[in-house]
Specification:
The complex is a heterodimer. Chain A contains 18 helices and 6 strands. By secondary structure, chain A is of the alpha+beta class. By secondary structure, chain B is an all-alpha fold.
């Protein structure tokens, strides 16, 4: 075991902190940011999305026994560029009496929200454009800009169908945002962090994919379903249901403005798949890597010390205001600028001993209250592990994208009343129940750092609880899933008020 | 980590430029021919009757209110989840009480038919 003493308060003067701030915003950082902005966000992501569109057309064609686009270039591979040129030279019509400024603003906002979500996704080690300590909160807030853009589009068009689509869109997005943000809670609970980089590292080096637990499976499904609803994909594409309201909120959009909506939608699909991969599928890590973290360290991230375990000693008295004890998690920022959470193993007087089964390149603070310090010697060939992690990450993302296309080809559009009741009566209760099951998982596996037998027992307990919660919620809702008349459906909450629950609350 | 938000700001500019760029190209390349019929609202060839900016149904407000309620709940849940590892059992009890109070609200809205799409 190697021992590393971190800086004490005396070393960590404000002047030092200030210097380190300027050191970190140095030329290298600017070059990195420039690369992300102009290579990543201007070229790579739009290109990926252009080919996702082509892939969807090809795959949808296969599902419908057609060939799909195959005229432009070999196998139709140049089709996205042909589409782009076509959209550029088409006239953009603004209907008379419409609010033209808002009309233009709406598609731009769609794209902005999708781009901003992608800013916190870790595509590999050190490859998150930015690692925000509150990344998930940021992600949730910027992704809800999409609801605004849909409403602006529908309202500014001054068309009844557009407005209908916008109303539906806002109601749907607002309803599905609740289960979406709640299904993420187990992940936050287990990793003890809102930073997406830290969440991936917890899965990669510590706990394995969050998917591999009953509350993880339920959380992942809830996240996937509500994300599909959030980006208006089939079977939740009611805001643009062509058989009912022409094209919904983008009825009055033509040419490139429609193209921007289209691009924004697919960019959003890509973004939610990246997000689901990051949160539940372990980012760029291999399936069982987290369970064999010690070996995996050697395989993917070369340790900078021969020992597999590092012990960090931090001065609790100086650096932490709230007197942390065993089990407390501390964020350590490493050389790449990534933050990872460590559990306090024990205390020796005022010293905290942190356990880490991976190389640590330091140093840190509790929940980023003090800014990071120390520029250690850096010796790990993390660039090489990215050669594995980036393809693995993108592989998972494209698999999820394929699943979304598959769902679109398979399921018919849901009815509007079922759409809303599914969000509020099925997804929200399940998401809330999942939080508690996730807490039990935390207490059984994560806090005591349980081994195989603890995991097995926890699988049994939480599996039964999850199955029970799902069964209960579906039992309460069983009538609303049947294809009878909504007015005559006898439910727990019938409108005539013949149920116990309704009778109790009628007087309120 | 404040400097990270500089990147977010730059990204905001880049994203706006990325979205506005094609629109500028359209303004330069695409034809602009106005005609009375083309600039009408699209309603399958029928002329629109009455005002297009109609009022919202009451139903939407109920969902909006519920959304605000649960969104604020989530705002409280996120920091709770982050620090749960250091807090322990008592934090769980407090959160159970908090969520049960909200669930009563949801059950009430459910029972009164606020969640029923009419």
């Amino acid at each position: 075991m190697a021992h590393f003493d971190l800086l004490t308060k005396n070393d960590f003067t404000p002047i030092l902190a200030q210097r380190m701030f300027y050191e970190q915003v140095d030329t290298v950082l600017w070059i990195r940011w420039g690369l992300y902005l102009f290579a990543g966000f201007f070229a790579v992501f739009p290109l990926i999305v252009a080919y996702i569109v082509l892939a969807e057309r090809k795959i949808a064609a296969r599902f419908q026994d057609r060939i799909g686009p195959n005229r432009v270039g070999p196998f139709g591979l140049l089709q996205p560029f042909a589409d782009f040129i076509k959209l550029i030279i088409k006239e953009s019509i603004v209907p008379k009496g419409a609010n033209s400024f808002v009309h233009i603003l709406a598609p731009i906002l769609t794209l902005i929200s999708a781009f901003l979500v992608l800013a916190v996704i870790p595509f590999g080690i050190g490859l998150a454009p930015v690692d925000l300590p509150s990344g998930l909160l940021y992600m949730v807030s910027v992704s809800s800009i999409a609801a605004l853009s849909i409403f602006l589009a529908g309202w500014s068009s001054r068309n009844k169908y557009s407005l209908l689509g916008a109303m539906r869109g806002v109601a749907q997005l607002v309803s599905y945002e609740i289960p979406q943000v709640m299904s993420i809670l187990p992940v936050i609970l287990w990793s003890g962090s809102l930073s997406l980089v830290s969440i991936v590292q917890t899965q990669q080096y510590d706990q394995g994919w969050f998917l591999f637990s009953p509350p993880g499976i339920l959380g992942f499904l809830l996240l996937l379903i509500s994300s599909i609803a959030e980006v208006n994909r089939a079977p939740f594409d009611l805001p643009e249901a062509e058989s009912e309201i022409i094209a919904g909120f983008h009825t009055e959009y033509s040419g490139m403005r429609f193209g921007l909506f289209f691009l924004g939608e697919y960019l959003n699909v890509f973004a939610i798949c990246c997000l689901s991969t990051t949160l539940f599928l372990g980012g760029g890590s291999l399936p069982l890597q987290g369970y064999f973290a010690d070996e995996a360290d050697h395989m993917l991230v070369a340790p900078f010390d021969a020992s597999k375990q590092s012990v960090l000693k931090l001065n609790a008295h100086h650096e932490f205001p709230e007197n942390p004890s065993t089990g407390f998690r501390i964020n350590i920022t490493n050389i790449v600028g990534e933050t990872q959470a460590f559990q306090v193993s024990h205390r020796v007087g005022n010293d905290l001993v942190l356990m880490a089964n991976r190389p640590v390149e330091f140093k840190a603070d509790a929940y980023s209250r003090v800014s990071a310090a120390a520029r250690p010697s850096y010796a790990a060939p993390w660039h090489l592990s990215n050669l594995i992690m980036i393809p693995v990450f993108l592989g998972k993302v494209f698999f999820l994208v394929f699943v979304i296309f598959w769902i679109r080809a398979t399921l018919p559009r849901v009815r509007v009343d079922r759409l809303m009741s599914f969000a509020w009566k099925t997804m929200v209760p399940l998401a809330i129940a999942n939080i508690f099951v996730a807490t039990i998982w935390f207490e059984m596996v994560i806090r005591p750092v349980g081994g195989f037998s603890a995991r097995l027992l926890a699988w049994l307990v939480t599996g039964l609880l999850t199955a029970g919660a799902v069964a209960l919620v579906f039992r309460i809702n069983r009538n609303s899933y049947q294809a009878n008349d909504p007015e005559r459906r006898p439910t727990l909450i019938s409108r005539s008020g013949d149920s116990l629950l309704a009778a109790t609350t009628r007087g309120l | 980590m404040v400097y990270n938000y500089i990147f977010i700001g730059l990204l905001l500019l880049v994203a706006t430029a990325f979205a506005a760029g094609p629109l500028v190209l359209v303004a330069l390349l695409a034809p602009k021919r106005k005609s009375k019929n083309k600039n009408e609202f699209y309603e399958c060839g029928v002329i629109t009757v009455g005002e297009s900016w109609v009022r919202f149904r009451m139903q939407y407000y109920l969902y909006a209110i519920l959304f605000v309620l649960f969104d604020i709940e989530t705002v409280f849940l996120y920091p709770w989840a982050v620090s749960y590892g250091g807090l322990g059992f008592f934090a769980l009890v407090e959160m159970v009480i908090f969520i049960v109070m909200l669930l009563i609200g949801l059950a009430y809205a459910w029972a009164r038919g606020a969640l029923r799409w009419q």
